[in-house]
Structure formats: structure tokens, C-alpha cells
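Open question from group meeting: does this chain pack into something compact, or does most of it stay loose? Before anyone orders reagents, we agreed to write out a predicted structure and look at it together. Recording both the input and the output here so the notebook holds the full record.
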Amino acid sequence: MPILLRNIPLGLEEPEDELLMLAARRLRVPVSAIRNYAIVRRSLDARKEDIRFSYHLEIALDEPLRKERSRLRRIKPGNASWIEPEPIPQLEHGIQELRERPVVVGFGPAGMFAGLRLAQHGYKPIIFERGREVRRRHRDVLKRYFRERDFDPASNLLFGEGGAGTYSDGKVYTRLGDPLCRAVLETLYQHGADPDILINARPHIGSDRLPTICTRIRRKIESLGGEIHFESVIDDIRVDDECLAAIHVRTTGERPTESWMLCGPVIFAIGHSARDTIEMLINRGVRVTPKPFQLGVRIEHPQAMVDRWQYGTLAGHPRLGPAEYNVVASGAASDCGDMFSFCMCPGGMILPAVESPGLIATNGASRSRRSSSFANSGLVITLDPATMGLNPLEALAFQRGWEHLAFQVTDGSYRVPCQRASDYLHERPSDGTLSVSCPLGGQWAEIRTVLPEVVARALDRGLPMLERKFPGFAGPEGLIAGPESRASVPVRILRDRDTRQASRTANLYPAGEGSGYAGGIVTAAVDGMKSADAIIQRYAPTA
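C-alpha cells returned:
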């Protein structure tokens, strides 16, 4: 039976080949007694000056079971255990007849993995994505938007193949303790991600690799009988007797069309920025409630500065990648709690993540090598719309209002509003040369004017706290950009916990970030898969 050895330290100057000898030493066996081993997890321990890697290894010994048991009893508790093979749960197909093929609305992480799951089980899903396939989308973003400032609502950093995740940092780290998380990572690896995502403690893919992975997953779905229709918006639904009966499909390509389509089960995996779709669902009687969401700024520093904070004198060591951080300013937001970092992107860039013209919202991204000289992170607090007396439509309008104000203060240029952190704290304007990683550039502005007062006050309290922990964090080299308003959606489409169908609207399966049930690539993918499983367990496969 395989043994799991935990927390085997390895110095920066020690090659991974040394792991075999270290494992044998811990087990008190000769190296020849280890029949096979594999790295299960790799992390970096930078809490002390003596920075080390830490490994979990799966070991197969070439000796009888009774001897293996004896060896495990001698090891410090918690550092070794048996690896019990987990039974792979088998999905049992339902028996109810599918009158229409299942539909998935949205082809971001939730919709993509829901569609793949359905296709793998023989259900031949029909998928509608309002944006374009990733190669055309790439040209639209790089040429039309970044170079010509010509924003396209149908093809941007949020809408299109892969959804917002395609142009994100590509972090696939999550605290969600669900077995399906491993299935998501394995699927990404099978379609082109680096195998290191299967063992790294904080796995990362990169925005340069995600487009190819998305294309390969789409082709896999198509090879299994699924269909993906781009430039197709679901702009209306018909509900009969509290059951979704039909969807209205409007295409926006070279030859626009519109038609009603009778439907069976429909997974709405619309993403965190399909505000028009959420508003349509509300207007058609689907139950939607406001929920807490994050709002704040994005702060950028030289990557070399972050490396010095985390690695000290070892900053720049060839085996240490760009450093990252996870910070909390406890109580900085007073009644709203803490201010904390979100989506920290070492070696990355700030991206303008909006779906409609006339708005500015920031996000972070990085390529697979994280080679940018900048590091950025969201600094956000959690707001509860209910405490502000906002209903779902008002919560969406509240979020949009600050983004529109940011667009106005930069003269409608799509440049991101910026201010030095030290200037922000002293309430003085920034001037001089502005260097920011955003491909559309930046413009000096007073960041307070594009933030709710509660967020501005949290920054006033929180930045000095973080400056004490990381000298320079709130200094002149810290650049605040904003707003960071798309960390999560401020509403939730209510659904039944068991059936995963929308409350009082059968056949409608809300899933992913846009429905208020996930945050990030992996959690959205898992949520989409679970909604697909609910359909699989109820209905027989498509004939």
C-alpha cells in the first residue's frame, strides 16, 4: 500500500533528485527499498530566513506490509500515513426522458466544464456564448481595444470563449475541499496546462496558455456531439407554471437572427458581468437576492520590491519565482470588517475588465512565466447590499455607477485612474511620470472620488497597517488604481440545494460566479460540473 510522506524539506541549492535519499532516510530504509515515488505536492516555505521547499511524496516500498506498518509507527505523527485509494464515484444516469437537448448559457469556466461533463456522458449539450471564439476575441482585444481604443461589447476581456477566466491570471488555487477540484486540474492538464499544476501548492497556468486550453476543450465537446454557438445572446425567457419553457436566442454576427427555442434543462453559467441577463431574469420573475460582494482598488508595486519583502537577501535566486503575498488589514473597514488582498498577480499586469462601453474596472493577470517587472493585487472590503438598503437591481446599479465615474474622471479615455499610495494617504494629487502595467495606460486622478466612502476610509486605516508589515507598501512606489469592482457579483440567483434548480423556476440551473455560487476558475468549474451532474442523474442520455 502506498505511503504518503509529508513535509520533506529541500534547500534551494539541493536538486529534487535528493528527495529519494531524504525519503529513504526518514523511512530508515536503503534507497534500493523504494520501488517507486512521486511528488504529490510542492510548496515554498518562506516564513524564515532559511527559505526551503516542502514536498509531499507518495512512496511504494519493496517490502512486506507488516514491515511498512512498523516503519510508519516510528515516524512523527502527521508526517506519514497510508494512502487509501479513494473510490471513484460513478454517476448513475437518470431515466426521465429528455424532450430537448440540455442547454448551457455561457462558455466561461462554469459553462465550459458543465458542457464537457454533459458531453462526456452522452448528453450532446447545446452551448450559447454571447462573445466570440478565442482567436477572433484575441484580435478584438489586442488590436481594436488596446491599440485603437475601440471597445466591442460582443468581444472583450469578459465575454467570449473561456469567459473572464481566459484573460485572468490563470490561478487554479482554491480552498474548496471538493474531490472535483482534482478533476478540474487534470482536465486542464490534459488539454495543455503544465503538469506542475497537479503538484504545486498554488498552481498557476497563465493568460498566454489559457486560450489554447479553452479551444481544445471546446473541440473535445464538439467531438462528443456537443454544439457551441458564439455571438448568441439569451435575451429573454418564457416561464410557464413556474417552469422554464423556452429561451429567446439573438445572434449578433454578420447576419443577425432571433428566434424562440423550446428547451429542457438550461444551465445559466453567465459569468459575473452579464448584468443585462441578470436584470432580464429578475424581470421574468426568477428569484434573485442581493448578497455580500467585494469592492476596492488594485495596488501595484515593482516586483523586485515584493521579492525583497518575501525573500530578503535571497531575492533574485534562480530557483525562486516572483514572490507573492496574501495580506489582511484587520478591522480596517470598521463595520465591514477587514481589508484584504485579492487575486494577487506576481509578475503581472493590470487589465481593464469591463463588458460595456463607458466603464472602467480593474483586474489582474499574468502570463505563464510571470515575467513582468510589476506585481499587483486587489485590496478590497466586503460590502453587504442589504445593509445599504439595496435590492438586486440597485446593487447592480451601485457597482456600475462607480465604474462609470472612473471612466468620466479619465476623460472617457479607458486609461485607468491612478494615484501614488503616499499621495492618497496625504490627500494630495500625484504628478510626474506615470508608469503602470495596464496596456491602456493610466491617468493621474484622485482615487477617493471613484470609491464609496466606506472603501476610502478602509484604505485610510489599512494602508498604514500594511506599510508597517511591508515597508514601502504605502509609499511612493505603491500605485493605486481603481476601482476593483468585479471580484464578485452582488446578487445570487436562488436555487434548491438538492435539485440545483432555481427557486420556483424549474428547468433553470444557475451556476458559477454570475449566479453567486463561486469565485475563481476552479470553484466555478466545479459548480458547473455539479449542475451538469444534477441533470445527468435525473435524465436519460440524449438519443
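Observations to bring back to the group:
The chain has twelve helices and 23 strands.
Residues 392-409 form the longest helix (18 residues).
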